[in-house]
Amino acid sequence: xxxxxxxxxxxxxxxxxxxxxxxxxxxxxxxxxxxxxxxxxxxxxxxxxxxxxxxxxxxxxxxxxxxxxxx
Length: 71
Hints:
Largest sheet: 2 strands, antiparallel
Oligomer: single chain
Shape: elongated
Number of helices: 1
């Protein structure tokens, strides 16, 4: 629910970079990503896609390790 989330934000750290704020919740991670629109060196679409793929890979890797664990 919205009351469980503290909405924060950050700006891009430099004109050709990104800003990323995250908030870990028990069953999700909230992400806010920013970039300057006038930079030819940044792409929010590419960054967001790469981050999503990386987090999915990490989730799948950790899920496999948990299934194979003897704990």
